[in-house]
Model the fold of this input.
Amino acid sequence: MKRLLALLLVLTVAFCAPAAAETARRPLASGDTGDAVVELQKRLQSLGLSTGEADGIYGKQTAAGVTEAQRLLAAAGYDVAQTGEADADTLKLLFDPEAEATLRTLRLGSRGDRVRQLQSRLIDLKPVSYTHLRAHETGRNLVCRLLLEKKKKKQKAQMTNYRGEKNQEINKT
Done:
């Protein structure tokens, strides 16, 4: 009798657990509220796709985070439409460990610990010094500014070289 009850309990847990997980991840869209939205918002925050508060209200920031996740997934070859709504496919991929690397891609506007870690690593590698980093600059602006400065230095060196050659020609005559 005890074995039968134990077997029945194991089968109940085995069949009910996947169903519970599926119902916890029902499709979500703008205007939805509740614990499922909080879970989604926390996941978006952990992936660096949302900086908003996990308030349980599916609003503009949540939709923007979901849209960005869908864009990254689509760019990586996943069959996902960029709707801003967390449909079943999007939710499955958002919580899929294999798709996580795709979703953790840093991009313009990224913030948080991962950005600070990358900045520290770049400084350790010494491609730029602290004097190059400005608090208000994004990575893209920094790269553009440094490339422009390098181009100006090269042009200045070429001009100086040109003037030097002209002076030598004048001195020879």
User: Anything to note?
Assistant: The two ends are 116 Å apart (CA to CA).
